[in-house]
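Tokens as discussed.
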């Protein structure tokens, strides 16, 4: 059993996730300790806007690149097409950001969509080259970005802008590198135009993937926006909720690692699903137990001001368990190009999540929002599993 779980490609890719996620957690722990709850809550709000905006601007292309492309040529021109669409979408999004007084987040949003974790570039490198190459990419970009975050917090003492300033510095560098990749790969405009006409037909499917990407983060990230809207002390409650959520999010590393590394095998051998799913369940259960103990210890010893969040964390941890179990089911449906099914499921769950949260928050506060997310993620897991059995 242990031998099946320990595989070199899992270890390399997993280490890149651990490294990137580890640095992020260290930075978030440091800022949570250093900053007041009010400033930390504002930092987390900007971070969630950037991540949610990045999911919209990437427009489902990371998943589309993983599941649709086959030849190296199609991968290159899909990457080029996706980059073009993302730049166009951030321009379209500018009036909304202007209305919300958040136009300064436009570049960080585009940086996340094109280059950072779960980005278009990351998916392209994974399918065009291999999991080892994307692992090195993740390590390098994570190190540079979070070094910038640390400098912003410690040196410039601009804690709430910690995820904004580094993106402005790194964006032009990685944009030039992406152009260099296209030139090295012998990018041809006439071929691109032919692919462009073909790829535009996929935009409806890509819209489905936008909803899927949104659903993967919106179940728990929209909670932050609900808190911002409903709470009388939004930054403080966002700080409590985000601190718990950041630790619970560690669980997602397991399905992301195993599914992304074995995506090509799942495409070719559907029967591999059972073996991969068993690995995910086993590792998720073990890591969940560890995180529960870990959270109890740190909130009783180091992060005393968050010791009142233990129950909130446990609710979110259980929610993340079911989200982890759903990952492979959702990916399996995407491989079969059942986009409409996942769109309908996710849209219904998101709407239910928002409506019930509005009802429960006045009575239960943060617990009401967390419990609503848990219920919706359990229902989503059940429904996705039923449809996966039908089509995969």
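Sequence:
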């Amino acid at each position: 059993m242990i031998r099946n779980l320990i595989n070199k490609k899992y270890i390399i890719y997993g280490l890149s996730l651990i490294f990137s996620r580890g640095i992020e957690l260290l930075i978030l722990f440091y800022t949570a300790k250093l900053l007041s709850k009010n400033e930390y809550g504002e930092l987390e709000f900007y971070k969630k806007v950037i991540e949610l905006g990045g999911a919209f601007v990437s427009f489902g292309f990371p998943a589309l690149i993983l599941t649709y492309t086959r030849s190296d040529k199609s991968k290159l021109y899909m990457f080029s097409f996706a980059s073009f669409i993302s730049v166009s979408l951030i321009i379209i999004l500018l009036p909304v950001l202007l209305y919300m007084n958040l136009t300064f987040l436009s570049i960080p949003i585009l940086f996340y969509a094109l280059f950072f974790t779960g980005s278009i570039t990351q998916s392209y490198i994974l399918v065009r080259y291999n999991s080892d190459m994307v692992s090195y990419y993740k390590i390098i970009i994570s190190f540079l970005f979070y070094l910038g975050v640390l400098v912003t917090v410690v040196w410039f003492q601009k804690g709430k802008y910690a995820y904004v300033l580094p993106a402005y510095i790194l964006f032009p560098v990685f944009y030039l590198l992406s152009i260099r990749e296209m030139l090295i790969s012998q990018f041809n405009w006439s071929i691109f135009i032919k692919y462009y006409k073909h790829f535009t037909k996929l935009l409806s499917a890509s819209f489905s993937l936008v909803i899927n990407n949104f659903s993967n983060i919106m179940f728990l990230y929209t909670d932050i926006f609900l808190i911002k809207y409903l709470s009388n002390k939004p930054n403080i409650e966002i700080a409590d909720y985000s601190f718990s959520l950041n630790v619970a999010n560690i669980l997602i590393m397991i399905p992301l690692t195993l599914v992304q590394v074995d995506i090509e095998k799942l495409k070719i051998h559907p029967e591999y699903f059972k073996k991969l799913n068993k690995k995910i369940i086993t590792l998720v259960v073990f890591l969940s137990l560890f995180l529960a103990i870990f959270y109890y210890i740190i909130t009783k010893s180091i992060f005393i001001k968050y010791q009142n969040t233990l129950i909130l964390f446990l609710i979110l941890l259980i929610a993340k368990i079911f989200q982890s179990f759903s990952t492979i089911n959702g990916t399996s449906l995407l491989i079969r190009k059942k986009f409409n099914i996942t769109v309908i499921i996710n849209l219904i769950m998101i709407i239910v999540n928002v409506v019930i949260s509005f009802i429960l928050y006045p009575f239960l506060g943060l617990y009401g929002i967390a419990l609503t997310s848990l219920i919706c993620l359990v229902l989503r897991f059940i429904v996705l599993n039923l449809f996966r059995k039908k089509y995969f």
